[in-house]
Design brief:
The chain is α+β, with helices and mostly antiparallel strands and 303 residues long. Helix content is 44%, strand content 13%.
Length: 303
Amino acid sequence: MPVEIPAEFLKVGSRGPEWVAWLDRLPRLTSDLLAEWDLRVDGQATYGNCALVVPVLTADSTPGMLKVQFPHWEAETEHLALRIWDGNGAIRLLRADPRRFALLLERAQPRDLTSVEEIEAIEIVAAMYKRLHVPAGPQFRVLSGEAKRWASELSELPASSAVPHRYVEQAAALARDFASDAETDGKLIHTDLHYFNVLAADREPWLVIDPKPLSGDPHYEVAPLLWNRWDEIASARDLRFALRRRFYTIVDAAGLDENRARDWVIVRQMVNVKGAIQDAGTDQVLPHDWLTRNIAITKAIQD
């Protein structure tokens, strides 16, 4: 049974010629994997930001999900992280072909943590941190290397950029310090752990999916829980209070160092801003809602 690529997912071809070429290969690639791994399609394909996901049954009728990803560095070691966790709080890896960026995963339910009240959802994620933050091996890219690069790139942002420059300078200095800090590397971190990347499951109540692993610092994990589910923050009567409530709930529930977590949030928000400005290029068509969100978080957690 051929897999029908969702029409909405085909829009990723607008990202450039490499995406178009990959989409052209994707039907044959998916068919080859289904045949080689003796899988049967068991529902309509879905998708994420960079991957096609197909519900399947294995030869012994075990439900699974075939995930085929666009080749990029964040996905290169996903299979290694999942093997290390071995289902402990995370989705279980059944099979992998790293060369083709293909994974066969256990099947979870389609319900994520956006179905749970905000503070309860944060506490669920925070409780998972200690299970996931195990020693990382040498095969993972290190966070200190990313911090060194970010410090340099942030320092190059002109003062005229659409962000208070004091925050850019602050983030560059913090990133520079983190780059030389021995505590910046060493633990296996997810880097994109938030409400959409935790699914309800049968084996455990909740399982983490879609790691973008690094060897890093657990305090780096906090920021995505602040910038996701933004509508709930934006509709709050007091935005600053709502953000600080989230921040302190994460820190307290996870037993993190408040100052270190705050410093990483500042770095990550300004890295987001830097990326938005760079993506806009010379046209300077900036996503103002996204810029406002990152600046608001940076301001709220420290002012």
